């Protein structure tokens, strides 16, 4: 029997849920309040006198272990729009030093990183020699029982010095958890390191979009949804969810035009605060104020356009500098439509950005541009053509100890209603992989549910 399924939210979780339901033969309607799909993993256009620059809303990467996200890319026909490394290879820059490199070998994990760590010049030799024992111990942590503990406290107990945390553990952890080690759940940190670096040789190879994210999660996803028969309604806000005798009633507002959609099943794929407002009060088995307690963490991006190339790799990490990660987005952004070659466009990603989210753009420029010059010798003589800042105050949920208790499963208390989003109980931190996994799980939950309200009403 074909069901009428509604999906609220057009981020990766909502897109994944809608496609899964449509592929199962059901009639799906997806509503999204923004003009475009993709949520926080999309892009926008910045206008100049000579044209427009495609700017990603954040610098999103994925790993080879992100199997459901990679399958999602293939499903929307965007597999050729990303690049995946042949092997993990991270250039690491420090002020006044030659770049170090974290590059894996083909040995079985975790030995595949042994040589790279022993040669890792960003750390003193004594600190390097203590890394393997901590890595082996982290491999044995059970995420199911470790959520109440701090990753930073665990690292200190395993003889990891402040330089080791800064130069290695936070190098990976801040980018994936959007939290510093002392503020992060040990369970989530163990998940990241176990899946990405400690159990499979190829799992940590890094992938990224070769085109604007809007081309991937917006244009390609929209075409895939429409080809699957999904009724996609952008610029459409969900204003209310109510039960009916046999299902659900979704109230919407599309630019002042109110409408009601009657549904058999419903997936809510909106952020935590929106879900707390929108869902029926008894839908989630969570305490009052759960969304506020789960919280959110910000990410800031500082964008710098130079008159010449200053970075000769697709991305690099920074140690001992305000620059956490820097990405070359020259080709993906269409920079040379606006600025003549050989100009280069770098995007500096600052995660766990509580300390800089409130800074003025001029302050951030004065902080980041000199830091780039200290890291990249070619930037010292290059002329800065443009700088601008983008901010996402609520980029992810806060991956703090105890956060697992505030992340609901996809199946709610109400049959026929599921929740999705990277903030739900995926077992992953707030990543694109987690978002897709949540959407798939929510679709499976509503499609396997018994007839919802009718049975209860009859009782």
Describe the structure in your own words.
With 459 residues, the protein is of the alpha/beta class. The chain folds into 3 domains: 4-41 and 212-294 and 399-458, FAD/NAD(P)-binding domain, CATH 3.50.50; 86-204, no CATH class; 296-397, Alpha-Beta Complex (Polyamine Oxidase, Chain A, domain 2), CATH 3.90.660.10. Helix content is 32%, strand content 25%. A 7-stranded mixed β-sheet has the order 8-7-16-17-18-15-19, sandwiched between helices. Strands 10-2-1-14-20 form a 5-stranded parallel β-sheet, with helices on one face. Strand 7 and strand 8 (100-103) form a beta hairpin. The chain is globular. Residues 454-459 have low confidence and may be disordered.
- Spatial order of the strands forming the largest sheet: 8-7-16-17-18-15-19
What is the CATH class designation of the largest domain? Alpha Beta
Q: How many helical stretches?
A: 14
Instruction: Specify the overall morphology.
Output: globular
CATH architecture of the largest domain: 3-Layer(bba) Sandwich
Characterize the main sheet: 7 strands, mixed
Outline the fold blueprint:
Blueprint: E1 4-8, H1 12-23, E2 27-31, E3 43-48, E4 51-56, E5 61-63, H2 67-75, E6 82-84, E7 89-93, E8 100-103, H3 114-118, H4 125-139, H5 151-157, H6 162-177, H7 186-198, E9 206-209, H8 213-227, E10 231-233, E11 236-243, E12 248-254, E13 257-263, E14 265-268, H9 272-278, H10 290-294, E15 296-306, E16 315-318, E17 325-328, H11 330-333, E18 344-350, H12 361-375, E19 384-397, E20 417-419, H13 432-448, H14 453-458
Parallel strand pairs: 1-2, 1-14, 2-10, 7-16, 14-20
Antiparallel strand pairs: 3-4, 5-9, 6-9, 7-8, 11-12, 12-13, 15-18, 15-19, 16-17, 17-18
């Amino acid at each position: 029997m074909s069901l009428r399924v509604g999906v609220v939210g057009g981020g990766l979780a909502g897109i994944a849920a809608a496609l899964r339901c449509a592929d199962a033969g059901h009639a799906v309607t997806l509503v999204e309040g923004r003009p475009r799909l993709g949520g926080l993993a999309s892009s926008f256009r910045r206008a100049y006198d000579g044209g427009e620059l495609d700017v990603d809303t954040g610098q999103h990467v994925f790993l080879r272990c992100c199997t459901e996200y990679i399958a999602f890319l293939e499903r929307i026909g965007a597999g050729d729009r990303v690049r995946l490394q042949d092997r993990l290879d991270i250039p690491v820059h420090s002020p006044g030093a030659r770049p170090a490199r974290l590059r894996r070998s083909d040995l079985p994990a975790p030995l595949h990183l042994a040589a790279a760590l022993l040669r890792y010049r960003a750390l003193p030799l004594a600190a390097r020699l203590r890394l393997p024992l901590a890595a082996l111990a982290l491999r044995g942590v059970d995420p199911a029982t470790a959520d109440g503990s701090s990753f930073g406290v665990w690292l200190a107990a395993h003889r990891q010095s402040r330089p080791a945390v800064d130069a290695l553990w936070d190098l990976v952890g801040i980018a994936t958890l959007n939290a510093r080690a002392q503020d992060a759940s040990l369970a989530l940190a163990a998940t990241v390191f176990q899946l990405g670096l400690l159990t499979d040789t190829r799992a940590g190879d890094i992938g990224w979009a070769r085109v604007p994210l809007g081309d991937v999660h917006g244009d390609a996803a929209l075409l895939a949804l429409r080809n699957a028969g999904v009724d996609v309604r952008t610029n459409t806000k969900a204003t209310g969810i109510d039960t009916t005798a046999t299902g659900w009633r979704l109230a919407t507002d599309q630019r002042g035009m109110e409408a009601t959609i009657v549904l058999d099943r419903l997936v809510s794929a909106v952020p935590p605060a929106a879900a707390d407002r929108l869902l029926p009060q008894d839908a989630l088995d969570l305490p009052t104020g759960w969304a506020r307690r789960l919280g959110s963490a910000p990410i800031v991006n500082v964008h710098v356009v130079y008159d010449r190339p200053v970075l000769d790799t697709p991305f690099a990490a920074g140690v001992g500098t305000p620059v956490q990660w820097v990405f070359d987005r020259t080709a993906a952004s269409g920079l040379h439509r606006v600025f003549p070659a050989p100009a280069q466009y770098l995007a500096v990603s600052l995660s766990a950005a509580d300390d800089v989210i409130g800074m003025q753009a001029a302050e951030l420029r004065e902080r980041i541009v000199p830091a780039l010059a200290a890291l990249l010798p070619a930037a010292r003589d290059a002329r800065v053509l443009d700088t601008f800042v983008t901010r996402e105050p609520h980029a992810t949920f806060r991956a703090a100890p105890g956060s697992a208790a505030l992340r609901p499963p996809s199946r709610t208390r109400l049959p026929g209603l599921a929740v999705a989003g990277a903030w739900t109980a995926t077992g992953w931190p707030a990543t694109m992989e987690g978002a897709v996994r949540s959407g798939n799980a929510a679709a499976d939950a509503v499609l396997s549910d018994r007839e919802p309200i009718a049975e209860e009403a009859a009782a």
